[in-house]
Amino acid sequence: MATVRCAYVDGHLGQIHLRLAGLGSGSQKRPLLCFHMSPYSGVIYERFVSELGNERLTVAPDTPGFGNSDVSIHPPEIEDYAQAMADVIDALELRSVDVMGYHTGSETAVELARQRPGHVHRLVMVSAPIWSEQERKTRPQIFSVTKVSEDGSHLQAWWQSAMYWSMKGRNLDDIGRVFPVRCLNPDISYWGHRAAHNYDLAAALKEVYQPILVLNPDDDLVDFTPRAAPLLQNPDSYILDLPGWSHGFLDLKCQETAKIVRDFVDDG
Amino acid sequence: MTDLSPVPVRRDYVDGRFGQIHFRVAVPEFPSAHPPLICFHMSPNSGRIYEVFLGHIGSDRTAVAPDTPGFGQSDPTPQPPTISDYAAAMGDLIDSLGFDEVDVMGYHTGSETCVELALQRPAQVRRLVLTSVPIFLEEELQEFRDHYGPTKLTEDGSHLVEKWKGHLFWAGPGWSKEHVAVHFPDSLLRPDISHWGHYAAFSYAMADSISKITQPILALNPHDDLHKHTQRAAALIQNGHIEDLPGWGHGYLEVRTEEACDLIRGFLNSEV
User: Fold this and answer.
1) pLDDT tens digits, residue range B102-151?
2) CB–CB of A147/A157 below 8 Å?
3) Which residues from chain A sit within 8 angstroms of residue B189, using beta carbons?
4) ipTM, 2 decimals?
């Protein structure tokens, strides 16, 4: 396991906080950038970064408004998040990179590949939510300001949701380690979901020609991800179902995930 | 006339003996003749409690608020630390930033770190601003130790509700639940060791230490959970005084930022 260090770089939306391992190791392998889900931060990749950092530069930024990164002035769209992640590539002076994204982060990864086709070599998406127009209209309205309650019930609701969607074997300590970042910036922590909801992932996927591995755990997006299959352009792209895996798998199945990702991004 | 408009606050890391130290920093627009001010937070929060304050006080001097080891984004110590360890780590920060003479400011546990740093580096620490001076009686210490332990995580999240209610209970005048929500997540970090700050504070011989300090001290005494404990320090402070602050409580750094800056500038900028 490599030592994970933290750092900041400057981007067009302010300071961007990073967790990284493998910097300056002289590894010939392409760096891997990992984009988190909403409303968490790069903390979800902490063990994963440590696992892969022995062999390649592995970087997990906090997207603007999450973790320790600066909050943008206006609610960002996925295009803005991708631009901010491109700022990370530039600040670290990286050329070719592989990218991995988790839920909202998987949309950011796709958009980054669209914006920087020359930089992005391969993509790993954890879920590829494709919504029908009807679903877009009828999905529950989770995209609004959290009302902070006097009695703390908002915290309890968040905790219970994290418990509910956690895969079997994820214990209280695992959740307790990442949960604090979920509570940051409650007035704007819906911005990530908002951006994800606004993004036309189906249209974007049709414009990405790099190979994409889509991981499909048994989580809240399991039914929506298979719809991405006909949208994947590269013949090396595919969807890998992960029955029994759900939130927390980056910790609980850290080595297995590292192998899946390594085998895919190093192939070709 | 110096322009005292707030300046931007940035964040960065330096390396210390226990690993990376995360800090917030505000730098005045023009070079300042005042020594930098280093601000140490209470337990179990982080330098975030100073974020608004730094932007204001930083308009005429460099102002830095580190996360002490194990809090915020700073790496933890391998073992439960003492106040001496915290002060040594803060010394590492001062060295990394290349500061010579500094003023220090502390809040609860951070006040003890200030005092200890002044003992460790008497020639470097010029003046001290202490928010509360915790002078505990032996029977109080036992009660506090029993109260502050490792956070027991619960299936139903009731540990969060209990902690949240505690934060609201001690919220000072003007400190809304929305303010509390900004800082609350820091108290949830590393639940297994987040009590280490309190334990270090309860083990520190504050009365003995503060009585050895010859540098000027301004002790601010808001009417918070350490109000009566701070009053006990009056006879121990050699060179300074206690400013009783009725109507001030937790959150004053944001609710009364400009008043606090005036008070602190008045002390730090005064002729000896």
Assistant:
1) 999 999 999 999 999 999 999 999 999 999 999 999 999 988 888 888 88
2) no
3) 180
4) 0.95
Report how far residue A125's alpha carbon sits from residue A109's, in angstroms, rounded to the nearest whole number: 8
What confidence tens digit (pLDDT) does each residue in B141-196 have? 988 888 888 889 999 999 999 999 999 999 999 999 999 999 999 999 999 999 99
CA dihedral A146, A149, A151, A153 (to 10 degrees): -20
| Band (A141; pLDDT cuts 50, 70, 90) | low
Q: Between β-strands A58-61 and A14-21, what pairing exists: parallel, antiparallel or unpaired?
A: antiparallel
Between CA B272 and CA B268 the distance in angstroms is 10
Residue B23 host element (H or E):
strand B19-26
Task: Give the pairing of strands B9-16 and B19-26.
Answer: antiparallel
Q: What is the mean pLDDT of residues A32-50?
A: 97
CB A46 within 8 A of CB A4: yes
Sheet-wide strand order for B102-107: B9-16, B19-26, B63-66, B37-40, B102-107, B125-131, B217-222, B240-245
Distance separating alpha carbons of residues A65 and A71, to the nearest angstrom? 4
Give the CA diameter of chain B.
Answer: 58
Q: How far is CA A251 from CA A162, A170, A173, in A?
A: 14, 8, 11
Best of B153, B168, B175 to disrupt the A interface (most A CBs within 10 Å) is B153
List chain A residues with CB under 8 Å of B20: 5-6
| For residue A250, pLDDT beyond 60 | yes
How would you classify the pairing of strands A32-35 and A97-102? parallel
Q: What does the alpha-carbon distance between residue B237 and residue B240 come to, in Å, rounded to a whole number? A: 6
Which of B124, B93, B113 is CA-nearest to residue B209?
Answer: B113
Nearest residue, CB atoms, A156 vs list B13, B160, B177: B160
